[in-house]
Design brief:
This protein has 445 residues and is mainly alpha-helical. It has helices spanning 36-52, 84-89, 93-108, 125-138, 154-161, 165-181, 187-194, 209-213, 218-230, 239-256, 259-265, 272-285, 289-302, 307-319, 323-336, 341-353, 357-370, 375-387, 391-404, 408-421, 427-444, and strands spanning 12-16, 30-34, 61-65, 72-73, 79-83. It contains 21 helices and 5 strands. It has a 5-stranded mixed β-sheet with strand order 1-2-3-5-4. The chain is globular, with a radius of gyration of 22 Å.
Length: 445
Amino acid sequence: MYRATRRLVRMTVLVLSLTAMIGAAPARAAQLLRDADIEYALKQLGAPILRAAGLNPNQVRILLINDSTLNAFIVDTQHIFIHSGLLTKLETAPQLQAVIAHEAAHIANGHISRRLGNMQTARTAAGLGMVLAAAAAAGGNGQAAVGLGIGIQSSALRSLLAHSRAEEASADISSIRYLVRAGVDPQGAIEVQDLFRGQEALSESRQDPYMRSHPLTRDRLRALNGLVAGASAQTAPDPAAAYWFARAKGKLTAFTRAPSWTLRRADGSGTPDIAQMRKAVAYHRQSDLGRALSNIDAAIASRPNDPFLRELKGQILLESRRADDAVRVYSAAANLAPREPLILGGLGRAQLAAGNPQDALRTLEAARGRDFSDTRILRDLAVAYAKTGQDAMASLVTAERYAVQGRLKDAAIHAKRAEGALPRGSGPWQRAQDVLSAAQRAQRR
């Protein structure tokens, strides 16, 4: 999932900066992986669970953190974060759905909103930056502190985000109910907890982050077994859920494991199109454009209305410096999914590479309007504004990109520059004010 020698194929990495509260040295950065295909798969798997919990699947996003450790957590009521290491470790769709159900229970039962009630909303770039910085700390950086809008030391942050035994018991009860209501085998919840058995005997530094925020005890495991045994669920395997789980995990491992590892295992991916997609990624990472295109074309032929496979082909072409061809393929993907911001972001990126900044500006503004949290979209949008002579808007979008990354000091510099050039009271001027206000609050803390 990295550019250059380890290429990033459509997975946008959002770097979240954490600043130590004592001194100015930066703490370990965390990364949020953005991929339209994987996020769609997670939404398909999570939607029935969220509905069973009384939550709106369109208002709770399930996002992937680039971390090989095992964890899943929430820091607000709008996001469920899952570590890539946990997705890689899980083996079935019901296991992943059990993880989602447990985190959804923490949201539905109010376990986080009571503690984070004063956190700035994530509906602005600066607010999302604060939420994501908290997510990075919750994701396992126990020595870090969030130097943004929260302003508390790491020990207090850990206490803030860690769930009590009572909350864990409550979430267990609710999650099993959600799984049964959604028609998902609740045995997946037991299988997930089996991954963590014995970790309570380890020192905290050796435990997976999940154990530090979700305390597991023998009593809790015994109670969970009883809940599952008492569930009157008559569930049958869901082929659609199995497909989307295999696709999400297959694509993730194709990006993160060595291409040779992927090619040895691709034919066991469950369906031919997933196998072909994984081979396309592996061959592209080996700079074998011919075999990459051959495999992705075969996958598209079996699923001609699938926008995400076309998006992957567009990315392969773009990274192979065939920008005009990439524009055509991305356009086809965008026609199939006109409201998918990450696909629109790829199209805008290809249009920029093809020398069409005006077209790119329109496309990237549409993408930003649907998702302002992808820093690569914001970076490309700033370039498009600069290439079309709109320097104030380029400064504004750059400020928002830094805000999402948690770099509020840098964000304030560009926001101030934009504020001085934008019409006072206009929508863009107000967006600059949002960034400046967040930066000032963080500085006061």
